[in-house]
Write a structure and sequence with these properties.
The complex is a heterodimer of chains A (about 130) and B (about 130).
Chain A lengths: L3 E8 L2 E10 L4 H8 L8 E12 L1 H16 L4 E4 L3 H9 L8 E2 L2 H12 L15
Parallel strand pairs in A: 2-3, 3-4, 4-5
Antiparallel strand pairs in A: 1-2
Helix pairs in contact in A: 1-2
Chain B lengths: L1 E3 L2 H17 L4 H22 L6 E9 L2 E8 L22 H9 L2 E6 L7 E8 L4
Antiparallel strand pairs in B: 1-2, 2-3, 3-5, 4-5
Helix pairs in contact in B: 1-2, 2-3
The chains are: A alpha/beta (about 130), B alpha+beta (about 130).
């Protein structure tokens, strides 16, 4: 069995990166290979960590860098389904503020649908300015 | 114990440390965090002392209830004498994320740099386990 497996699923709202196993020195390159092509491509990314058992400092640094690259393009990296251990790790290194955390992928998708919908009474004039 | 910084071996040792904490009554999360700190110290040895390669490390584990004391001694290039445990999250290019994690998890961290070029670095980390 692989120590780490990464799989990308494309849905209308985002690219979903499903990480299963352990991210450490021996597996970090697999995460990098999966993450790099989908970061900065103009789409939101949901990182499904519901089957992630372990992540080390290198993996955390990679998630942080991905979040910053996405944010620079107006996109988000969202984390879905962390175990209590992974959630605690994200808190300890202060990434829980930068990376929105959701209980499930469905909740993260719902969040993206909400932010994609314009406010019901907003009005845009000919110059595209909201009022 | 003395072994090489092979990723599968480091993974096994990290799991062993977590298991030792669980055996002493630490919670699953706390045990995992202690194991993580050991994993970071080993990864640092691999990255800094052996230039991302493989080399020998010596790990000592001492338990003085409730203190779990982990020491990792590498035998490669010592860290710069200015090395400290970062207080704040390092930037994305930094190679200090491991030390940052260790500093956030463990209660005490000491770094001893050898004055000899081939005697590496000793990092000693202490965690006061929260026991039932």
């Amino acid at each position: 069995m692989d120590i780490l497996s990464c799989h990308v699923e494309v849905v209308p709202e985002a690219d979903i990166l499903r990480i299963r196993g352990e991210v450490d020195t021996g597996t970090l390159s697999s995460l990098r290979d999966s993450l790099q092509p989908i970061i900065g491509n103009g789409r939101h990314v949901i990182v499904d960590v519901s089957e992630l058992r372990y992540i080390d400092g290198g993996g955390l640094r990679m998630l942080s860098a991905a979040q910053q690259r996405s944010e620079a393009r107006g996109m988000q990296v969202l984390v879905a389904g962390p175990s209590p251990f992974v959630r605690r790790v994200l808190q300890i290194v202060s990434l829980d503020g930068a990376l929105p955390i959701f209980g499930t992928v469905a909740e993260a998708l719902e969040h993206l649908r909400r932010i994609a919908v314009p406010a019901p009474h907003s009005y845009r004039d000919q110059d595209g300015q909201a009022s | 114990m003395r072994f090489n910084t092979d990723p599968p071996v480091m993974r096994a040792v990290r799991r062993l440390a977590a298991s030792a904490c669980r055996d002493e009554g630490a919670s699953e999360i706390e045990a995992g965090l202690v194991g993580m700190s050991l994993g970071e110290a080993l990864a640092n040895a691999c990255l800094h002392a052996y230039n991302n390669g493989i080399g020998p490390v010596t790990v000592d584990v001492e338990y003085l209830r409730p203190r779990m004391i982990l020491s990792v001694h590498n035998h490669g290039s010592p860290v710069p004498d200015t090395t400290t445990v970062p207080d704040a999250q390092p930037d994305q290019e930094s190679r200090d994320w491991g030390l940052y994690v260790i500093g956030r998890v463990m209660d005490e961290v000491e770094i001893e740099r050898s004055p000899h070029s081939d005697h590496g670095t000793l990092i000693r980390m202490t965690k006061y386990l929260t026991l039932p």
